[in-house]
């Protein structure tokens, strides 16, 4: 009898070694090597027909056909996908536990079923009764929505071939098991091979496959990085569970743009799309509160008015604290250094806290000016007027640098009642004449325009 060969595989990056290692040399993670049994590789099924041989063609000879996308009926979801789901595509949806991934896909499946589009929803985490209970909370399920509880991928694909749905939903890929591998479900090898088998199934049958992926504590999708390269679309569902708002982003999309985003609100009846999120986070803004400034930040291609709050308080300790929630911690330290060096404001004996209201996470530098103004407002205990909007990136030399789509940010803010707009200096192509636009070249000019 042949001796069974084993190997040790990193559960974070997929690196394999003949012996156990305490630290993975590929990704640097500790205690991530797990023992797996080596299985001989089998020839993969080809996408081509048995008698068809590949031949090179020029682009003008390739037949182009219009692909009719499958629309979910959830406008925010369809926008992020580029207009709907492409038949035969493989879509990966990731997000934190409890963020609403399963709820959104079950709701989309029910809407598909209402339009007579057959959907097979396979859950490896819930029983059929639990899935039906959640579906009844979302509404009345249609007859075209089929549910199934299974973890054996071969059995799932066998049923999918018999039922012939137009959309197959797998919840989640970490619970699926491929009997060809002698490893536990959720391991790097299982996730990789299950995804590869689903990819071949989608391309060969033309059935769109949507898989849900778990995320690690760092926010990355669990499994090998190869997983994101194999699929056609990678969607990330983000949001703080303490708040009701969720943001759906496309990290990769072979059939559309990655600059779109969808805003949702978690209500008692499930996820509700927010069609116009521009002033969503300004409903409970306090009047004449020092340390509060509004900035127009882009979520995809749409500006959203975000309230940036700052608190500067005298520190009781020898080392002052710097804390950022929803904002880049390193940018807070940079802005404090710029304010000290260029404006002479001494923060050495003060704690500084910056918070983005509503659980939003701001990554673009357009919020630099608003954060700096909020810090100065709290330091001076002087409120910024309620109708002021601040947009701009702050450079290390104290200059205000331009950001993209300034005109659209101003237009949407004007529709919400803002009358003074402090923006970087430069040419603006405004379709309609808007008063109250103040262009500043330096941080000192911008702060003077904001407080005066």
Report on the structure:
The protein has 452 residues and is an alpha/beta fold. 25% of the residues lie in helices and 25% in strands. The protein contains 10 helices and 21 strands. The protein has a 9-stranded mixed sheet with strand order 6-5-7-8-4-9-10-11-12, with helices on both faces. Strand 10 and strand 11 form a beta hairpin. Helix 7 crosses helix 8 and helix 8 packs across helix 10. It is globular, with a radius of gyration of 26 Å. About 1% of the residues have low confidence.
Write the layout of secondary structure elements.
Blueprint: E1 6-10, E2 16-17, E3 33-37, H1 75-81, E4 90-95, H2 101-114, E5 119-123, H3 128-138, E6 145-149, H4 153-163, E7 167-171, H5 188-205, E8 208-213, H6 226-230, E9 233-238, E10 245-253, E11 261-267, E12 270-273, E13 292-299, E14 302-314, E15 322-325, H7 329-343, E16 350-356, H8 368-380, E17 388-390, E18 393-394, E19 400-401, H9 406-415, E20 420-424, E21 437-440, H10 443-451
Parallel strand pairs: 4-8, 4-9, 5-6, 5-7, 7-8, 15-16, 17-20, 20-21
Antiparallel strand pairs: 1-2, 1-3, 9-10, 10-11, 11-12, 13-14, 14-16, 18-19
Helix pairs in contact: 7-8, 8-10
């Amino acid at each position: 009898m042949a001796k069974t060969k084993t190997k040790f595989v990193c559960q974070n990056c997929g690196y394999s070694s003949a012996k156990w290692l305490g630290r993975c040399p590929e990704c640097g993670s500790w205690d991530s090597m797990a023992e797996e049994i080596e299985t001989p590789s089998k020839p993969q099924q080809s996408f081509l027909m048995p008698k068809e041989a590949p031949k090179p063609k020029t682009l003008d000879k390739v037949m182009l056909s219009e692909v009719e996308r499958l629309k979910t009926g959830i406008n925010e979801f369809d926008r992020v996908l580029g207009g709907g789901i492409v038949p035969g595509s493989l879509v990966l949806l990731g997000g934190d536990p409890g963020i609403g991934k399963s709820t959104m896909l079950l709701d989309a499946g029910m809407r598909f079923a209402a339009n007579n589009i057959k959907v097979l929803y396979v859950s490896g985490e819930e029983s059929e009764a639990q899935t039906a209970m959640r579906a009844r909370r979302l509404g009345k399920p249609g007859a075209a929505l089929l549910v199934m509880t299974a973890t054996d991928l071969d059995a799932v694909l066998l049923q999918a071939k018999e039922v012939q749905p137009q959309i197959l939903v797998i919840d989640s890929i970490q619970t699926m098991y491929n009997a060809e591998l002698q490893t536990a479900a959720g391991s790097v090898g299982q996730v990789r091979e299950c995804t590869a088998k689903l990819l071949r199934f989608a391309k060969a049958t033309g059935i769109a496959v949507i898989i849900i992926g778990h995320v690690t504590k760092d926010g990355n999708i669990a499994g090998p990085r190869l997983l994101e390269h194999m699929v056609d679309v990678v969607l990330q569902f983000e949001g703080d569970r303490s708040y009701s708002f969720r943001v759906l982003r496309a990290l990769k999309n072979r059939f559309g743009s990655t600059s779109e985003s969808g805003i949702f609100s978690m209500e008692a009846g499930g996820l509700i799309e927010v069609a116009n999120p521009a002033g969503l986070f300004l409903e409970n803004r306090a009047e004449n509160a020092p340390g509060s400034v509004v900035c127009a930040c882009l979520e995809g291609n749409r500006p959203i008015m975000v309230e940036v709050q700052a608190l500067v308080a005298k520190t009781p300790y020898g080392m002052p604290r710097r804390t950022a929630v929803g904002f880049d911690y390193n940018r807070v330290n940079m802005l404090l250094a710029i304010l000290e060096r260029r404006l002479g404001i001494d923060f050495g004996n003060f704690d500084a806290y910056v918070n983005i209201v509503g659980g939003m996470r701001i990554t673009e530098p357009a919020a630099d000016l608003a954060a700096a103004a909020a810090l100065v407002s709290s330091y001076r205990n002087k409120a910024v007027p309620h109708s002021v909007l601040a947009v701009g990136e702050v450079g290390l030399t104290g200059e205000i640098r331009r950001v993209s789509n300034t005109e659209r940010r101003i237009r949407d803010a004007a529709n919400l009642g803002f009358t003074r707009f402090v923006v970087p200096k430069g040419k603006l192509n405004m379709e309609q004449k808007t008063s109250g636009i103040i262009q500043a070249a330096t941080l000192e000019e911008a702060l003077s325009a904001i407080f005066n």
